[in-house]
Amino acid sequence: MKDLARVLLIVANAGSGKTYRLVTRCLELLARGEAPDRILALTFTRKAAAEFLQKLFGRLAGAADNTDELDRLRGELGEPGLTAEQCRAWLRQLTAALPRLSMGTMDGFFGRIVRAFPFELGLGREFRLLDEAGIEEHRRLALERLFASAAGTKSGLDQLVELLRQESRNRSDRSVLGTIESAAAGLQQNYLDTPRDIAWGDADRIWPGHDGILTASSVEDAVRALREEIAATHPDLGTKAKAQWNEWFDLALAHRPPRRMDDKLEKFLAEKLAGHSEDAKTGEPYVPVGGKAEDRLYLRGRLPELRGSLRRSLIKLEIQAKLESSRALHTLLAHYESVYDTTARETGALTFADVALFLARSAQDPWRRDLDYRLDGRHDHWLLDEFQDTSRIQWRILDSLADEIIQDTSGARTFFYVGDTKQAIYGWRGGDARLFWEIQSRYNHGQSDVVQKEELEVSHRSSQAVVRTVENVLNPETLDRHAGDFRFSEPTVRAWTRAWVDHHARPDAPEGYACLDVVRPADDESSDDALSGQVLRILREVEPLARGLDCAILVRTNDELARYVGILKKAGIPAAAEGKVNPCLATPAGTALLSLIRFIASPADLVSRGHALASPWRHVIGPDLASFTAAARLGAGAGFASVVRGWIQNAVTAGIITPHELDAFAATVSAFDATRGGAGDWAGLVRAIDHRTLEENETPGAIRVMTVHQAKGLGVDVVILPELGGKAMSEFRDDARISLHRDGQGTVQWGLALPRKEFCEADPVLKSAREEIRARQSYESLCVLYVAMTRAKKALYCVTAAGRNVKHAGKWLENTFPGDGDHRQVGNPKWFNEYPKTGPTVSDLRSSLTPHSPLATRHTPSTSPSRRKPRSLESIIINREARELGTEVHRLLAAIEWFDGAPPQIPGDNSAARTVSHFLAMPDAIKVFTRPAGEFLLWRERAYDVEIDGEIHSGTFDRVIVTLKDGRPVEAGIYDFKTEHAGPGLDAKYHGQLESYRTAAAKLLGLDLSQVSASAISVPPSAQKPALP
Amino acid sequence: MPVFLDAPQPLAAQVAARLLAGRQGRPVDLSDTLVIVSTTGAARALRAELARQSGGVLSPAFRLPMEVLVPDGAVTASPLERLAAWVHVLRETPRPKFAALVPPAVKLSAPEDWIGVAGRLAAVCDTLAEGGLLPSDERLAEICPQDASRWREFGKLHTTYRQILERSGRADPDALRLPQSANPTLAPHLRRIVVAAVPDLPVITTGWLGAAQDQGVAVEILCAAAADNGARLDSWGRPDPEWWATHPVQVPGGLLVTENDAAGEAAALVDFAARHGQEGFALVSAAPESTDALEAELARRGAVPYRPEGRSLAQTEAATILAAWEDFLRHQHLRTLRPLLQLPVFTGLLLAGSDLGANEAAAACDRLLAEKLCSSLEAARAWADANQSSEHKDVAQLRRFITLLDAFTARNLQGRELLAALYKDVEDDEPSTASALESLVEALDGTDDSPLLRDLPPDWQQALHQRQIEDRRLFTPATENAVEILGWLEAPWAGAPVLCLAGCREGALPSGVSEDAFLPDAVRAKLGLASQATRYARDAYLLSCLIRSHGPDRLRLGFSRFRPEGEPNRPSRLLFGCPDGELPGRVTRIFQPSPARPRIHHPSPAWLLHLGKPGPVTTIRVTGFKHYLECPLRFYLSQIEKLQPFDPDQREIGASDYGTLLHRVLENLHKDGPHDSTDEQLIATYLGKELDRVVARHYGRHPAPVVLVQTESMRVRLRHLAAVQAAERRAGWHLIESEYAVKKDDGFTIGPLALTGTMDRVETHEDLGLRVLDYKTFAKTQTPEDTHFGPPREDNDLPEAAITRADSRDRPVEKSWTDLQLPLYRRLAAKIWPKHAGKGVATGYILLPGDPDDTRITLLDLDETTQGVAEICATAIAERVARGNFWPPAEKVKYDNFSGWFGGEDPRRIFDQATITRLEGRP
């Protein structure tokens, strides 16, 4: 048996069998006799979680059934004696432990903790996870409340207006809700990452102990000093230059941040305060104004210093404005988050991010000691997958638990984490790849080697050609060689070098193919068109669908994705947008149906109305839209599904849509009914349909178009990369609005809406912060290229357009792809001939399930119809007292057997007692309660079940007197008490009911119907106290 | 000892036969018998079977296991009262006294917070009761030392809870059960108790049965026979967890139906039922998502699905109206009213006697919310007050709606009164409505009558009432041909020859009891409560019974690998019951995903949009040309068909209204403001006041908070405009017209069409002539040059739109007209004011952009040649419009109100040929 590293870090190249290794680790633990429920295996996506379980069970099943697989497993586990029986035993052990297995997503694990500790986490109410529609609804509600509370007072309103002004740097934007809503959505993660005692834009935190650029003098002082120095050093300065410098000074003095800088002033700042020319003869630096020598300002004396001083003064103003807007934004978000806490989180409406937030906030709480107790299990062995995507918040939750295990030297507990920091493309949602190495550094300090490292180099996914190409294009030497051209910073190169592990293909991997096509757009052609033209040529040559190969086009943005789907469709090539898709709106019939529902929800929406009526749905709607709408609303009183399904069915019958076309639509409506359906909430239904998304990653019979992020974790036979976006790889992207600066432990130290590059460079702190972010972003752009290229199993087609002077991924490929020229190849260009064409295969299993209509006869014994009499709705609602009286009167009457003399005294003084007492004095009562002569049976409040003509009749008799002769029934009288006044029509009114009783009694007693009588006995309500007899 | 029913008959038939055994003659009277059943469905099945076998029977009493412990006639607290009692306990007890139980982290402010905690505590009490425990039981702290302080606090609170109930003359049903367990109060006529195949009798019920036996009542334990005859059950018919854990049920592989998702699973199972269930089939579901999928699959095939577990009362129409209307009465939020206006029952009452239709009412409410930004009735009233004098049709309609709503609100209909009014004219034989009303009225009665609720403030009562409605299930009878979807525990009672069981996943079969905040699995067994092990044993036993009763050909067990939201399911352990040799194959089959199904169903080829024939067009607005230039089809839809978008979720002043408001203010500047002044401050003050007046007119005296904030942004823009206005006046410009309308009958034409439009601002200058300016409230600064000229068109459809323009270095550049507004104003102005126009006519924008520093006048550089080209282009467009030519459409436009129509498709490919022909202007 192999030694098992106690704490093991696996650095795994793409396609090198990360999941396989993870599963192997799990099997190694089983082989050591560890109980499966002691293993905690967490990953990020549901798909990966499913794959993990499938492989774990699948490999054991394979080994138990197949000697080759058993041999392989023996080798992998270092267990030469492993037998198929042993594998079966482990399978038994695993299946038995299924409910206790902690193998799933990180979100799922966090959800379990929250369910087990609701009170400790502050959740008094039941919690529910919000879907997209729910999140939007709660966000809007919070905004509404935020504004309402702010506008409650003049000062509150002023403060809000002022905050918005500061945040927008003095703009007076029309949309205010939009501003906060987008900040709330886009910056929530940053806000929550920031410790509560830290506000963004806090100068003391950015420049602790000094004020950085804020120490610059005032613009007035700087202008004055510079002006004097110019006068002193350049008494003969040309008139034009003097005038121009004065104009610039005036502009500088007039500039009032937070207003944005005037264009002229900006130019002055960049060109005249920063740049200079050199005298051709003397080499002396000067600042020109026009072309004349007399207008040159030579940088003499204190001029360079004072010029820099003015520049710093102006930049200071810009940075102050950024500080102010950052503070305002933070305050706005703090207000918003506080309201959102009350309106959503505290009511139990949570997102996955909230769940993590709750747990992270309580990471040190004492209740965490009881985790094992409440979760019914102790996890001694941790296996964490895709660790490079773990966020700081997630790690804060896991850290102390993990620490306990890593520090445990008993050997009974192990920690295993696997990842690939070359695939760290989720920085935008909080993933922080630095954690991957931080853990190693933290525990391996000094001489200790607590964390052992293993590298997985061999790709089990890609062909030789693809692997060779990846190795060529992205290895650290290549990066080092081209880093200068592409402005990759030293930290980026260093991080990539650290992350890099050499790539090798499996020796038996097919040769495969990789190529780069540099297309040159024709004169009348755009680069985009040239790129897509080449993509189409590739598809027509390779014909992947006809050969049974799956093929993906990987792009960067959703817009690109939609564009390629459109291009392919136009070219007659089946294409599917993958990733998050809305299955309801996959066909025009779905979009038009949504329009119809939109119109019903909101009759003022004429665009939707027009769409529905222009579409073939008009045949279902009929000539009268108003009647159709009214009928829809009426039908939906009890739920929407039956109404919508009815329309769909009609449309299928009319041949407007194909039978399964709107299955997903109908299912979404049903789900809405089941979970949120409130009668009449058509607007809610619209939201539910609008927000319905599926994570779709497998569309047979179509070219799959997806973003690189969606492709992560997938392997595809043929991958086409058309350029991967036009942005420079090392460009600073201000996509977060607020940049966070963290310390070595990842804790946020400060946050700021960073000013632009030239301004940042005037301050070392800001310059370094910006560089750090740029380094991280350019690192991520390398990761994106790496992920994109390594998805390819058999062939990789890279396409880029020549002529653009942008340092984007396409250009990188152009510079680094092996070979020369516009068409470079690695491997066999006709690789696809190994896969003969068999025609497009679209397997539609569901269509083979022919619907049976009508369904076979049903047989369900529990649905026996019990006879219900129609009830008056008014009586149900209004006659509550009457109903209660009826119940009580029946109870009192059922208690009476016979009069046997005087009527019994009825205890109590309520209206039921009075009613019964009053009734007992009436002749009808004497008839009913006088003991008959002879043999008889008496039934009081007796339930019965009788079968008549195949139907089951159930009911309860109030009172039945059965006359017996020789012990056998010969006659029966049924009395049904009615708490209403007698009248000539009482029996007639209840004829149906009485007949039903008669029939039942006759059947029960074996009598002829004529031998059974039934009458309604009036027990009129009495408000008066009965007269004493 | 339990009696195994092992005849080859359905379970219900065997139990009924057993109940009827020895009962000869007429009538068959079983009223001395109490039958304990596991579900109400089982009781229904048994009653029907008793009737069938006997022809007719005086029925035994049927009770669920926990029900038998509450003596008849006992005045127990209802669930609502128990909840209320817990709320009282929490409110009356100082927080520090239960800080371990409900830590300070739990914020208790809104009634719903307290009710939430109360509900959780009440639920724990019910669970404990099954083991014969109360929270005050000292064993709890002993068995759960980690939670000892919580249990001790819980125990103390529970004592208070019972006292509160007692004070109100109510008893806690759980507290009543405990003594009953040891010393039952039995009905005098009771002779026999039959436990009808209940495999999970709670500990407390077994105690009760034992005591009843001691009192001389015969107790019979009937059990369904399992596949393995040696299956071990205890003396109460409960499977022995230890035995079942080590004796897996053998499940033949042929029984398994494994699919990727619940929809596929449902389709496969219903397919099997339809093919093999000619003599009758039953559909059973163990998991909620499978029930949904089965329901959807049945509906898809045209069958009527029926879920006997009912649905939440809160989802019924009557409950929705009640809750929403009462909420509306309290807060008067119009958004609460929106769904009500979609319900004919409600609109029937609200609009009775009015000429306002349901669509109009719904649209009016939407407009008040999204256009007038009135979130409440009060705001709507204020808006109506401010617009009393307007005779505009739309305004009048909104006023009518508000008046109607006001009057209806004043009636203050609530509770039963509201329900009575709503359902007065509704058909009264509608069983589901009747059941809903009955249940609602019961709920209302509970709130009205109980002393426990009366002491609470109205909003607490309302919250409790709503909670009760949410907790209640509404059971409606199945319709004649409905296909029932049974729950798992009812499976043994489904007597159908063919049975399909869906949802065989862990957590559902067996159901899970993990992650319990109070009672983790580890302590459940010690406390005699249902645990993972007992649930597994129960379900293994029941599955074994099904396999025995149906055999391999008539039973199918469904499993789907993924939940609808994508979470992987764990297959039920029970599915792995097979000989060891088969296990690997079984595992592979269950875990290996099925091939993916195509998600994309190709749309029907017949799916094309069709538009009717447009009427003749005789006029065109100056602003319309921009739309035509952008896309003739969208121009047609928006300008000719008048299909205007409407966003009901808009919550702030939209771009169009924002501009309109500023226009109004500036229009008034000309009419009665200091437009001739050069005093910037004076103008700014006027504009500020005018803004407030206009805003009050549009949004009422109490506008929405967001309007107040947006008004401030308008004020900033106007303040900067005041400076421009004063400067321009000083420069000699004199405002002569504002919002000058050119109407159809004014006689201005362009090509064959009358030209109409509105000029925002017309000014004259002694030396410079005439100037026509348009106010623009762009977010980002755009000059007329930016808006009127774009890159050359890729198509050749409108050659007249081409123009050569000089760039910043005066080089000629090929461009295309993108708007013709300013040239057309110029042409109109020259004709309307010829006297002033003599010295020239300039046109341009007054920019009031987001960045107020950019507020300025910017003119369009327009020479006579360009003007001529513009007019040629405008004439060409007018001729096309007059001909009915609105084709071809642009593939994409910047802001597309019709994107929903096109769904990402090329608009040229989504219309039928007849429509295209018509839109091309061909006859």
| CATH H-level superfamily of the largest domain in chain A | P-loop containing nucleotide triphosphate hydrolases
CATH architecture of the largest domain in chain A: 3-Layer(aba) Sandwich
Gross geometry of chain A:
globular
Q: How many β-strand stretches of chain B?
A: 25
Dominant shape of chain B: elongated
Distance N to C terminus of chain B: 91 Å
| Mean pLDDT reading of chain B | 92
Pick out the low-confidence regions of chain B: none
Helix content of chain A: 40-55%
Explain this structure.
Chain A has 1029 residues and is α/β, with parallel strands linked by helices. Chain A contains 40 helices and 28 strands. In chain A, 47% of the residues lie in helices and 14% in strands. The longest helix of chain A has 41 residues, at 303-343. The termini of chain A are far apart. In chain A, 47% of the residues are buried. Chain B folds into six domains: 3-69 and 184-224, Rossmann fold (3-Layer(aba) Sandwich), CATH 3.40.50; 79-180; 241-308 and 483-591, 3-Layer(aba) Sandwich (Rossmann fold); 313-474; 618-645 and 734-923, no CATH class; 654-731. With 923 residues, chain B is of the alpha/beta class. Chains A and B meet through helix 2, helix 4, helix 5, helix 6 and helix 7 of A and helix 2, strand 4, helix 4, helix 10 and helix 11 of B.
